[in-house]
Write a structure and sequence with these properties.
membrane; globular; alpha/beta; transmembrane helix; transmembrane; Pmr5/Cas1p GDSL/SGNH-like acyl-esterase family protein; 15 helices; acetyltransferase activity
Length: about 350
């Protein structure tokens, strides 16, 4: 929705632009170089005066990227709730598992899988930050595999998976910056929101956080986990409210995966990371107002739902790259819908 101030600004800019250009064209029609120079000068001046009324470039690009997305806010909200309704094709000796949206749903909501060019256009000029544990690291790997050519993505993988370390990558041609922050515990995420990002010169355009596996293994206390989630939600809301312009980050919460208990590789994991405990942790996510659907700041990336559908895990906890590819494309399509709602 365009504000009254923006409408006035646009009208004034049109007057400033077209009246002088018309007069210039009348008097300088025989001197094309002089006319072009004058028109360019006036256009730049208008751009300077009009820029405060326009959204930041990354958000503008995101909002204009997906022409088939629903236009009304009600249909957009409905489509957001349908993003995780993917179908899985069965694996065979010749093919791996694959995912897709049902054709009718893809047509109705405009959901689409992105090519490298599409993703680079969508994220042009954006800063993406992903913070959490190994699940978050696997999401970053999926992102790099899409944004970079295969050789560059393969070369980046050893640094990305350096144990307990942060990672940074860039796509200079598109001005895209990607950061992974190793933050396995909830307190790490709260500190990131309350301290590190408040001191940063700008906020990320896209912020993905997730935690729970380390707390489940080392603390095994769902109530304490819930208290920590509430602190994260408070810190995220405080960060959003403290940011003037550009708009606050698009915030996503990376949900816990389905755990296949017999496949877990240590006795401690098999004892503490079972279905009963996982359900208790998931309930805390639902009840602590961390998710957008409950009035919180984060849109859920439901890894649990996707992994229950895929059943493609080598160790009962981490899943094949196809799962994180699905998570990434769900996030991309949510970005398109959310950005259209902000305009």
């Amino acid at each position: 929705m365009v504000s009254a101030g923006a409408q006035v600004g646009v009208f004034a800019a049109c007057v400033v632009l077209f009246v002088p250009m018309g007069l210039a064209g009348w008097h300088l029609s025989r001197n094309k170089v002089l006319f072009f120079s004058g028109a360019l000068f006036v256009s730049l001046a208008v751009g300077v005066h009009l820029s405060p009324y326009l959204p930041s470039l990354p958000h503008l690009l995101i909002a204009s990227f997906h022409p088939t997305s629903p236009s009304s806010s009600s249909s957009s909200a409905s489509c957001l709730s349908l993003l995780h309704r993917v179908t899985w094709s069965p694996a065979s000796p010749a093919t791996a598992r694959a995912w897709s949206w049902p054709p009718s749903l893809a047509s109705t909501c405009g959901f689409a899988r992105l090519t490298r060019h599409d993703a680079s256009t969508l994220l042009n000029g954006s800063w993406i930050m992903v913070a959490g544990d190994s699940q978050a690291r696997l999401l970053v790997l999926a992102l790099l595999r899409l944004l970079l050519d295969p050789a560059a993505a393969a070369a980046a993988e050893p640094d990305l998976f350096r144990r307990h370390s942060d990672y940074h990558a860039a796509v200079p041609a598109r001005g895209i910056s990607v950061d992974f922050i190793w933050a396995p515990f909830e307190a790490n995420l709260t500190r990131l929101l309350r301290e590190d990002l408040r001191l940063a010169p700008r906020a990320p355009d896209v912020l993905v956080l997730g935690s729970g596996l380390w707390h489940m293994l080392h603390a095994t206390d769902a109530s304490r986990y819930g208290d920590a989630l509430a602190a994260i939600a408070d810190a995220a809301n405080a960060l959003r409210s403290s940011l003037p312009v550009p708009p606050p980050p698009h915030m996503f919460w990376l949900g816990l995966p389905h755990l296949v208990n017999p496949m877990l590789n240590t006795d401690a994991k098999r004892a503490r990371m079972n279905d009963t405990i996982l359900q208790a942790y998931d309930r805390e996510v639902d009840e602590r107002c961390i998710l957008r659907r409950d009035g919180g700041p984060f849109l859920l990336l439901d890894v649990g739902k996707l992994t229950r559908g895929c059943e493609c895990t080598p160790d009962g906890m981490h899943y094949d790259g196809v799962v994180y590819d699905a998570v990434m494309h769900i996030m991309f399509n949510a970005l398109v819908i959310e950005s259209q709602q902000r305009i």
